[in-house]
């Protein structure tokens, strides 16, 4: 991926490199995350697939080695993987509940605080998720 690429966790990326040697043959291309070796490929197109990356920042490089043992390392590609927000994070997109008896279970750990959001139990509030329910029958 190019530097500045962002993906949603769990993310999948295909690392790729172009390598050639006018005096010989490329023997291998290795792919790295920081100082950790991810994998090695010996055939073009040179690529390595990653899946299931959790949220966080990553630094990837590729290193090509020719038949004489000479090598060159690519520039660092900085990639950011972010945790997606809950689907009912915004008041305007509250999840609709249906039926006479609606029950939900959830958490607000990844939710945001909306500007101008209503108070929560008389307090200024924090990270909130929203559900909307309308009683199916009017009570007289």
Question: What this model shows, in words?
Answer:
This protein is mostly beta strands and 140 residues long. It contains no helices and ten strands. The chain is elongated. The N and C termini lie far apart (62 Å).
> Radius of gyration, Cα only, in angstroms?
25 Å
**What's the mean pLDDT score?**
88
Spans of at least 5 consecutive residues whose pLDDT stays below 50 are: none
* String of helices and strands: EEEEEEEEEE
Global shape? elongated
- Fraction of residues in helix: under 10%
Span between termini: 62 Å
Range of strand content: 35-45%
Biggest sheet character: 6 strands, mixed
Task: Name the structural class.
Answer: mainly beta
Total number of β-strand segments?
A: 10
Number of helices: 0
Fold topology:
Layout: E1 5-8, E2 11-17, E3 26-33, E4 36-41, E5 46-53, E6 56-66, E7 71-73, E8 77-82, E9 95-97, E10 131-133
Explain briefly what this protein structure is.
The chain is mainly β and 140 residues long.
Observed structural traits:
mainly beta; six-stranded mixed sheet; 42% strand; 0% helix; 140 residues; two-stranded antiparallel ribbon
């Amino acid at each position: 991926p190019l530097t500045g690429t962002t993906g949603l966790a769990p993310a999948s990326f295909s690392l790729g490199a172009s390598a050639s040697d006018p005096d010989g043959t490329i023997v291998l291309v290795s792919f790295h995350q920081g100082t950790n070796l991810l994998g090695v490929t010996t055939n073009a197109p040179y690529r390595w697939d990653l899946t299931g990356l959790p949220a966080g920042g990553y630094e990837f490089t590729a290193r090509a080695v020719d038949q004489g043992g000479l090598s060159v390392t690519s520039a660092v590609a900085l990639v950011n993987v972010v945790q997606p927000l809950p689907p009912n994070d915004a008041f305007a997109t509250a999840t609709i509940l249906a039926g006479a008896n609606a029950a939900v279970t959830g958490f607000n750990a990844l939710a945001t605080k909306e500007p101008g959001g209503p108070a929560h139990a008389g307090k200024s509030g924090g990270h909130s998720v929203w559900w909307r329910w309308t009683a199916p029958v009017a009570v007289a």
